[in-house]
Structure formats: C-alpha cells, structure tokens
C-alpha cells in the first residue's frame, strides 16, 4: 500500500511529519476542507509529459498548473497534462489522483511551484483519498529534491449560466 511506502521512506529518512486521517476527499481543495487548512498549504500533484517524458508538477490547491510557464521555465518544446492511461501503473499502490509529490520514489522528476516553497509547511496526499501528510517545506525539499520554479496561475472561476 502506498501509505506504507511513503511513511517508510519518511521514517527511514528521519523526517518529522504528521499523518492526517480525514474523510474521503478527491480534490486538493476537498483535502484542504477535510483537514481544516487554507488551500495554499495543500500540494496538488499533476502528472505531466515534458517532451514525451513523465514528470510531477506540484502546485498549491488554490492555483492551476500553468503549462506554458512550465514549458518556458524548462526550455521544453512540448508540455501537456498526461493521460491517466500513460501513468496508471507507475504509482503502484496509490489510488488514482492521490500520488504523493515525491517523483523520485516513482522514477520521475518533480517540479514544485515557488508559492509552495514560501510556505513553512505543506500537506499532500499520502497515496489514498483519506490520508494526508503535513511536513515542513524544508524537509519536503530535502527529501523530494524538486526543482523549484514558478509554474502556477490563479484559478479562474468560469461563469456558469443558467439554462433556459
């Protein structure tokens, strides 16, 4: 089970963290509500393809991944959100949409948004939709070894129109 893998990794690395158990949440904003924290502390993991290779992009729950910014930051030719069929087997033991933001555990690079890097601590899914981990950002950075860059943009609500 993925939760065991991530906690064993954290324990083996002598990391200080808090394991949070919450009601099932299927989006980063729902996790924020479940653990009673502002969304800016919740790390949302998005699986992307950068010039054909898989990678993780990690942004605050209150933002969207900016694919153009990621492409420009990396000097890549093509960046897109990966289709689930392209990575379903990669995150063994993780529930779909609940992969922790530690790409090195899964053999892929991790890019984290600079907004998260400014927070003292972050919270992320621990492989299930009912478990999260809170950890100091500097501990996360030490263990995940992500590349930090500006890759998010404010979430824009699209107006909903009533149907007549």
Radius of gyration: 15 Å
Determine the number of helices (DSSP H or I, runs of at least 4 residues).
6
The appropriate CATH architecture is Alpha-Beta Complex
**Span between termini:** 48 Å
* Physical arrangement of strands within the biggest beta sheet: 5-2-3-6-9
- DSSP strand tally: 10
3D structure, described in words:
This protein has six helices and ten strands. By secondary structure, the protein is an alpha+beta fold. The strands form three sheets. Strands 5-2-3-6-9 form a five-stranded mixed β-sheet. Strand 7 (about 120-125) and strand 8 (about 130-135) form a beta hairpin. It has one domain: YbaK/aminoacyl-tRNA synthetase-associated domain (YbaK protein, Alpha-Beta Complex).
Brief account:
This protein has helices at residues 2-12, 28-35, 67-74, 84-87, 114-117, 137-144, and strands at residues 17-21, 43-50, 53-60, 63-65, 79-81, 109-113, 121-125, 131-136, 147-149, 152-154. It is an alpha+beta fold.
Draw up the topology in text.
Blueprint: H1 2-12, E1 17-21, H2 28-35, E2 43-50, E3 53-60, E4 63-65, H3 67-74, E5 79-81, H4 84-87, E6 109-113, H5 114-117, E7 121-125, E8 131-136, H6 137-144, E9 147-149, E10 152-154
Parallel strand pairs: 3-6, 6-9
Antiparallel strand pairs: 1-8, 2-3, 2-5, 4-10, 7-8
